[in-house]
Amino acid sequence: MFPDLARDDVFRLETARLWLRWPRASDAGAIHRFCSLWEVARYTARIPHPYPPGSAERFIYGAREGNASGRELTLVMTPKKGQREAIGSISLEARGGDRLTLGFVLAPEHWGKGLTTEATWAIVRAGLELTPAVEILANVSVDNDASRHVLEACGFTIAATGLKGAPARGGLVECHTYRLTRAAWAEALEPWRSTFETAPLGTGPLA
């Protein structure tokens, strides 16, 4: 679903405080550190706890393969200032020919700063500008207030509530399914444009 522009590993997105780029082998240590934390894994469907050795490397390989194929766009978040190691990840995965699903995690020491909202704006923009998707969906545990706040700040609304498969949590979890259509995104973006406007989509070295 994603075009050639996003299938090259120099593709990146920029926000006010973040670079979003393809994961690299050198990110394995940072990814392992935050994915090993229960407070990160607990609300995800796929991150096991404890986090087995080699899982970060497998995640990176799978993300790069998925990006190269165009069926997903998985990026790591890195701060523009200070150490530029990965502090989280965010992804869009194709579901059928006209929908994308969103997922994200962020290291706890960076919670409460609005970084996930910045990253979500950037990747939602990429998904809706680079693909023919008519909507983006996200499944969120009903008690995951922080992720719900991020989605609602970005214009997502609850479309359904029900049980969803969460293999890493051992079965089914009650979730809200959030939805963002193209029209809703355009409407939600306007009051936030000056805060979360991203640079033109493109490629090139990180500044």
TrEMBL record:
GO terms for molecular function: acyltransferase activity, transferring groups other than amino-acyl groups. Keywords: Transferase. The keyword Transferase applies. The keyword Transferase applies. Residues 17-157 form the N-acetyltransferase domain. This is RimJ/RimL family protein N-acetyltransferase.
